[in-house]
């Protein structure tokens, strides 16, 4: 990756990374205050997408952290079997600031993977202490500095990042946000409730689109070519189906759904009956 400055980097973090770090922090031993691990993802020119992570620190008997290269390599090899396209992009640690342990492990780690995957390894700091009543996330890049032949100094340069979502992650994130908005734990909706909520959301978005188009047509809002192109692509993506054909498709789908529901109910009844007969016999 040919990047001359860390400020040129574009970093995208997936929610599963933050959730994995939080889960590992909650499952740590009571005598461990912070956890450290490796970030993995995909590198494309100046863009780094952080998709996964794993814990690799090994506390010694004295409580100090020790980087075990063999253990790290074993974990990375296992991860590569499942995600062969993901490479090492940096490190992470928990807490409200980067401490000496994180700095030492990042320095050692950077020497081990130097120039193998990324020019500037990322360091992700997740504030699991909830300082100021929220969990802060800080991304920075680690690099050494100094005169040629004597670059013993090191520095973490803060960089901007954005959260990236797969469709599945977006649904889960929206569920979390809805629970946060109501200030408590909300029950998980069933399929019909999801359909109703999604339909309502689509209806609201269509109202916003119609209002925007009307405002542009009336000259109240300036025309934006990017928005117009996006609306055109969305309209072209809608299948053009005749009304009668659409009704037939819906009727056939409904009949198939009823048949599957009936068969499922029949199987459950047979299993319950077989269980009672086995108990009697």
From TrEMBL:
Component of the eukaryotic translation initiation factor 3 (eIF-3) complex. SMART domains: JAB_MPN. It holds the Pfam family MitMem_reg. PANTHER family: EUKARYOTIC TRANSLATION INITIATION FACTOR 3 SUBUNIT F, EUKARYOTIC TRANSLATION INITIATION FACTOR 3 SUBUNIT F-RELATED. One of its GO terms (cellular component) is eukaryotic 48S preinitiation complex. It is found in: Cytoplasm. Its main location: cytoplasm. Residues 10-147 form the JAB1/MPN/MOV34 metalloenzyme domain. Component of the eukaryotic translation initiation factor 3 (eIF-3) complex, which is involved in protein synthesis of a specialized repertoire of mRNAs and, together with other initiation factors, stimulates binding of mRNA and methionyl-tRNAi to the 40S ribosome. The eIF-3 complex specifically targets and initiates translation of a subset of mRNAs involved in cell proliferation. CDD domains: MPN_eIF3f (cd08064). Keywords: Cytoplasm, Initiation factor, Protein biosynthesis. This is Eukaryotic translation initiation factor 3 subunit F. GO terms for biological process: formation of cytoplasmic translation initiation complex; translational initiation. Belongs to the eIF-3 subunit F family. GO terms for molecular function: metallopeptidase activity; translation initiation factor activity; translation initiation factor binding. InterPro entries: eIF3f (IPR027531), EIF3F/CSN6-like_C (IPR024969), JAMM/MPN+_dom (IPR000555). The keyword Cell cycle does not apply.
């Amino acid at each position: 990756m040919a990047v001359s400055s860390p400020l040129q980097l574009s970093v995208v973090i997936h929610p599963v990374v933050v959730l994995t770090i939080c889960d590992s922090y909650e499952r740590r031993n009571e005598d461990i205050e912070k956890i450290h691990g490796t970030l993995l993802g995909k590198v494309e020119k100046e863009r780094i997408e952080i998709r996964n992570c794993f814990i690799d620190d090994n506390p010694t008997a004295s409580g100090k952290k020790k980087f075990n290269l063999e253990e790290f390599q074993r974990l990375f090899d296992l991860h590569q079997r499942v995600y062969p396209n993901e490479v090492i992009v940096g490190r992470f640690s928990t807490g409200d600031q980067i401490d000496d342990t994180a700095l030492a492990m990042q320095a050692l780690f950077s020497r081990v993977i130097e120039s193998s995957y990324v020019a500037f390894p990322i360091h992700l700091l997740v504030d699991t202490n909830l300082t100021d009543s929220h969990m802060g996330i800080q991304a920075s890049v680690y690099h050494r500095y100094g005169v040629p032949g004597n670059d013993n100094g090191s520095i973490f340069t803060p960089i901007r990042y954005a959260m990236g979502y797969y469709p599945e992650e977006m649904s889960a994130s929206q569920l979390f946000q809805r629970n946060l908005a109501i200030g408590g734990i909300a029950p998980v909706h069933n399929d019909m409730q999801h359909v109703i909520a999604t339909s309502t959301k689509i209806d609201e978005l269509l109202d916003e689109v119609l209002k925007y188009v009307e405002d542009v047509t009336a000259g109240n809002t300036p025309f934006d070519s990017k928005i117009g192109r996006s609306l055109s692509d969305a309209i072209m993506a809608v299948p053009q189906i005749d009304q009668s054909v659409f009704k037939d498709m819906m009727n056939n789908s409904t009949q198939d759904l009823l048949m599957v529901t009936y068969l499922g109910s029949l199987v459950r009844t047979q299993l319950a009956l077989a269980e009672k007969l086995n108990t009697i016999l």
